């Protein structure tokens, strides 16, 4: 009886060791790092709903998320590490990731599906350039350090429209570009009329000011998730529109995109 018990004990021990080995191998497989070289072409990335994807960049970055997926895609950026988590499936959307120090921009074409296994962590690198220990890039991109960020572009756009002429100043690197003044259907439901007012370009980014007017007899609270088009950011001058005919039935929305307004809406 003791011998049988001993055999059972040995078998249980081996089963435990085997289980630990299987778990270790599975963990190692999941954590295997996939390295992708940035070659100035958009990087395709497929997310699985509910599974967080980790992406490492050479230095600290900021992620621009299109308004169309802001409510379904969680993004976090910490010291050059970006974490993406899709809450539901969606088609291809372009994320613009900008290095805060050098101004270099990476493009990610991201989709999300309901099926798939755990993805490998990804490391994006640039040949011949590495981030230093303090998070600064050493790629000699000094001229790009003055690239305006989203907030600067929106502030510039708003000043051009609303500030007194004597206070409006040109900013190096920001150039006025033509935009059609024809009405556009930018807001789902048809309750809001949109009319482009002006547009500017700055180092691959486009910012467009669009006048929004309430078409209904009811007050409206504007929601960026109801915007049509592919936008990196969308900022309303005012979030609430009074009923049609009221002096406060109109506001402006500032839209930043990676492409001209005409092909983004």
Describe how the helices and strands are arranged.
Elements: H1 2-31, E1 34-37, E2 43-48, E3 53-56, E4 61-64, E5 73-78, E6 81-86, E7 90-99, E8 105-113, E9 122-125, H2 150-162, E10 175-177, E11 192-202, E12 205-214, E13 220-221, E14 233-236, E15 240-241, E16 250-257, H3 261-264
Parallel strand pairs: 1-9, 2-8, 3-9
Antiparallel strand pairs: 3-6, 4-7, 5-6, 7-8, 10-11, 11-12, 12-16, 13-15, 14-16
Protein architecture, described:
- This protein has 265 residues and is of the alpha+beta class.
- The chain folds into 2 domains: 31-141, Immunoglobulin-like (Sandwich); 150-264, no CATH class.
- Helix content is 18%, strand content 35%.
- The strands form 4 sheets. Strands 1-9-3-6-5 form a 5-stranded mixed beta sheet, with no helix packed on it. A 5-stranded antiparallel beta sheet has the order 10-11-12-16-14, with helices on one face. Strands 2-8-7-4 form a 4-stranded mixed beta sheet, with no helix packed on it.
């Amino acid at each position: 009886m003791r011998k049988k018990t001993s055999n059972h004990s040995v078998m249980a021990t081996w089963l435990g060791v085997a289980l630990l080995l299987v778990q270790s191998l599975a963990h190692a497989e999941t954590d295997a790092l996939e390295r992708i070289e940035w070659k100035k072409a958009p990087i395709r990335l497929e997310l699985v709903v509910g599974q967080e994807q980790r992406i490492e960049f050479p230095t600290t970055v900021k992620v621009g998320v299109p308004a169309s997926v802001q409510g379904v895609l969680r993004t976090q950026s910490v010291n050059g590490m970006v974490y993406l988590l899709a809450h539901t499936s969606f088609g291809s959307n372009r994320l613009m990731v900008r290095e805060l120090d050098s101004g270099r921009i990476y493009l990610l074409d991201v989709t999300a599906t309901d099926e798939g296994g755990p993805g490998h962590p990804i490391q994006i690198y640039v040949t011949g350039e590495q981030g230093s220990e303090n998070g600064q890039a050493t790629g000699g991109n000094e001229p790009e350090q003055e690239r305006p960020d989203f907030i600067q572009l929106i502030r510039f756009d708003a000043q051009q429209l609303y500030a007194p002429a004597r206070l409006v100043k040109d900013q190096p690197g920001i150039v006025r570009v033509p935009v059609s003044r024809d009405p556009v259907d930018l807001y789902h439901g048809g309750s809001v009329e949109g009319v482009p007012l002006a547009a500017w370009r700055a180092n691959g980014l486009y910012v467009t000011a669009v006048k929004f007017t309430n078409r209904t007899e009811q007050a409206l609270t504007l929601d960026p998730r109801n915007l049509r088009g592919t936008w990196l950011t969308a900022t309303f001058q005012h979030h609430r529109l009074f009923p049609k005919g009221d002096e406060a039935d109109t506001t402006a929305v500032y839209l930043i995109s990676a492409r001209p307004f005409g092909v983004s809406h």
